[in-house]
Specification:
mainly alpha; 5 helices; globular
Amino acid sequence: MLTPPRLPGGLLPRIATCFGGGVGRCKEELCGALSGGIMAVGCLLGRTAPGGSWDQAAAVAADLRSRFAAQNGATSCGRILELLGPQEGMDKRRLLTGRVAGLLCESLAAAEA
């Protein structure tokens, strides 16, 4: 089982903050939920020193993106929001984030196989 590195409390939410709404709420870039999944890949499999290999991390991130696109029909925030339709608060976005966690598990499992 992969164990993420220990980081000071609250650091990951701070790092991820500006990915909400694509990038800085512009809704034109990569979906924030997918961005978070890719950040998780980096935490689990990313290189630990400059120049280190990141082949496995890149492969898992590409697989996650592919799975996300197949399941959701797009990767851009604006298009995803159109496809999700009207919502109360952020309910559908929260569900999408949970689905990304499941896709991440699938991508990690496929990489181990």
